[in-house]
Specification:
The chain contains 9 helices and 8 strands. It is of the alpha/beta class and 217 residues long. The chain has a single domain, classed as 3-Layer(aba) Sandwich (Rossmann fold). It binds BIS(adenosine)-5'-pentaphosphate (AP5), magnesium ion and zinc ion.
């Protein structure tokens, strides 16, 4: 099963991809997480992408596609791509890379959420510094404030969570990523989930969609 999770920053792609990867035994591949790990690890890739992440701007297409090709497509037969592709050129590069291997996407799940909601979610998000699990101070709080339920590590605020940077990310999304909704609709691959609902309801709807895609295979 080869899936793409599409949606605005804050739509819940990462939250749902983590759940669905576990539920269906798929690799959860988040370009955002790959880039953040590279920055934290001080690699050459990290040095190149840091200013883009901090400013809320997209990393150049060629570089992003190369990273996905090498770290995901060559390594994993079944995956959820969370946060890639994010531009039309990236979508075409993905298609080329898959076609070259005689493969194709099974579906694109689009998490639909308005910008106001996205803003509230992103400015209240905290992330575990250890295992990477997502929380929200109001909507998905941990049992003990500031501490990860799963691994006990400290919860931190991502460096791109200020109102100003979130606004930039939402603009980048509108300009460069939203056209993919039409692109994947025309390709007959798009399935839409109403992402305004509770995490459990969104998970339920997503799970049903993935099951129906598996039956189509
Ligand atoms: P990335 O890490 O992908 O960030 P993003 O798209 O901005 O998405 P987020 O992770 O912010 O949101 P999400 O949809 O995963 O939501 P989440 O589950 O966390 O990318 C970061 C940067 O890397 C980019 O800005 C760019 O620089 C670079 N980059 C990455 N990919 C790239 C690419 N392909 N090309 C170029 N550059 C790239 O949920 C958000 C919050 O809401 C959480 O607090 C969560 O607890 C809460 N929440 C989740 N679901 C619900 C719900 N149903 N109800 C209430 N609260 C909820
Ligand atoms: Mg994410
Ligand atoms: Zn943790």
């Amino acid at each position: 099963m080869k899936l793409v999770f599409l949606g605005a920053p804050g739509a819940g792609k990462g939250t749902q991809a983590a759940e669905m990867a576990k539920r269906f035994d798929l690799e959860h591949a988040s370009t955002g997480d790959i880039f953040r790990r590279a920055v934290a690890g001080g690699s050459e890739l990290g040095a190149t992408v840091k200013s883009y992440l901090d400013g809320g701007r997209l990393v150049p297409d060629e570089l992003t596609a190369r990273v996905v090709g090498r770290m995901v497509l060559e390594e994993e037969p079944d995956f959820i791509l969370d946060g890639f592709p994010r531009t039309l050129p990236q979508a075409r590069l993905l298609e080329e890379m898959l076609n070259a291997r005689g493969e194709e996407l099974d579906g694109v799940i689009y998490f639909e959420l308005g910008h106001e909601d996205a803003m509230v979610r992103l400015t209240g998000r905290v992330v575990c510094g250890g295992c990477g699990r997502n929380y929200h101070v109001k909507f998905m709080p941990p049992a003990e404030e500031g501490v990860c339920d799963r691994c006990g590590d400290e919860l931190i605020v991502r460096s791109d969570s200020s109102r100003e940077v979130v606004e930039r990310r939402l603009r980048e999304y509108e300009e460069k990523t939203e056209p993919l909704v039409g692109y994947y609709t025309r390709a007959g691959l798009l399935k839409t989930v109403d992402a305004t609902r509770s995490p459990a309801e969104v998970s339920g709807a997503t799970e049903e969609l993935i099951k129906s895609l598996m039956n189509d295979e």
